[in-house]
Amino acid sequence: MTDVATTSPNAAGLAPSAAAAPQKLDDLMLAMDVVDTLRHQETVALRELDDDARKAALVTRLKKLYADQGIEVPDAIIEEGVRSLEESRFSYTPTPPSLSRTLAVMWIDRGRWAAIIGGTAVALAVAIGGYSYFVVGGAERAAEAQRVEITRTLPAELTKAVQTARDEAKVPAATARVDTIAQAGQAALTRQDAPAAKAAIADATALTSTLREVYQIRVVSRPGVRSGVYRLPPNKASRNFYLIVEAIGPSGQALPRVITSEETQQTKTVTIWGQRVPQATYDRVAADKADDGIIENPVLGDKRRGEIDVRWAMPTSAGAITEW
Fold it and tell me: What integer is the mean pLDDT of 266-280?
C-alpha cells in the first residue's frame, strides 16, 4: 500500500501570512498625533509633565497605546510630541486683531457679508425709491393734477355749467346773470385760480336750480294761522306791514325758502314767512278776508321757469321776517 505523504499547507501552495509589519507614519505627523492624543487627555498630561518621573511614565504609556494600535512610534518622536505639548508648538494661537485679520475673516465669511450688504443695498434702494415716489413723485403728481385741473377739468365743467344755465334763462336779467358768472369763471381760469373757478361753477349750478323753480307766493288763509301782522319798529312812528305767505309748488306742497329777517338779520330756511308790503296791499287783503273769512285772491306773486325774480301780482316792499 502506497503511503500517502502528508501534504502540508505549504505544499498546497498556501504560504503562511507574513507577520503584520509595524505601520509607519511620517515623523512630523506622528509628533502631531502624539500631541493630539495628549490634548484629549490634557488635564492628565499636563499633570504628568510636572514631574520628570511621571513624564517618563507618560512616554511609556504612549508607546503602549500606539503599540496596541499596531503603530511603531520611536521614543524620539514621543518625546518630541511631549516637548511640543510643553512648548505648544502645534497649538493654534489666534492672530491678534488687525485690519488684515478683519479683511481675511470677512473674505472667509464673504457669503454672509454679501447677504448683509445686499440686503442693506436693497433696503437703501427701497428707501430711496419710496422717498422718490412719495415725496418727490408725490409733489410732481400733485403739480400735474393741478395743471390738468386748471387746464382741462375746470374749463370743461365751467363751460357745461354756464351753457346749462344759459339754456334755462328766459329773460334778459337771467341771461345777464349767466354772462356775469361766465366772465368771472374765465377770469379765474386765466389767472389759474382754481378756487375762484370752482366758485363760478357752483354759482352757475345754483342759478340753474333757481331758473328751474316754479311756484306761487300765496297768503296763508287757514284756521289757526294769521294772514298778516304789523310791527312798530323802534324809533319809528309808522308801522311795518307784513302778509304771512308761503311758496306753493306745482304739487301743492309748500317749498322751503331761504329768508333773511330784516329785524334780526338772521337767515333761515323756512316754509312760511312774513313778506313786507305797503299798507294799501295789507288793507286790501284784510278786506278780502273780512267779508267771509276767506281770501279770494291769495296769490301775491309767482315765480316762472327761466326767470330769477318773482313777478308780484300786488305791490310789495323789500324786507321779510321769520318770526312774529
Answer: 97
- Strands 257-260 and 228-231 turn out to be unpaired
How far CA 7 is from CA of 2, 13, 147, in Å, comes to 15, 10, 118
Taking the CA of residue 186 as centre, how many other CA atoms within 13 Å lie in the half-sphere pointing to its CB? 9
| Neighbouring-strand partners of residue 28 | none
Are the CB atoms for 219 and 286 separated by under 8 Å?
no
> Is residue 317 domain-shared with residue 242, that is, in the same domain?
yes
Residues in contact with 178: Cβ distance below 8 Å, sequence separation at least 6, in sequence order:
162, 165, 166, 169, 204, 207
At residue 190 the predicted structure's pLDDT band, cuts being 50, 70 and 90, is very high
* Cα–Cα distance measured from residue 226 to residue 282, given in angstroms and rounded to the nearest whole number: 13
**Residue 134: what pLDDT?**
67
Model confidence over 2-18: pLDDT tens digits? 443 444 444 334 344 44
Q: Which of 150, 181, 212 finishes a domain? A: 212
Widest pairwise Cα distance in the chain: 183
Residues 244/228, Cβ–Cβ less than 8 Å: yes
Domain annotation covers residue 222:
yes
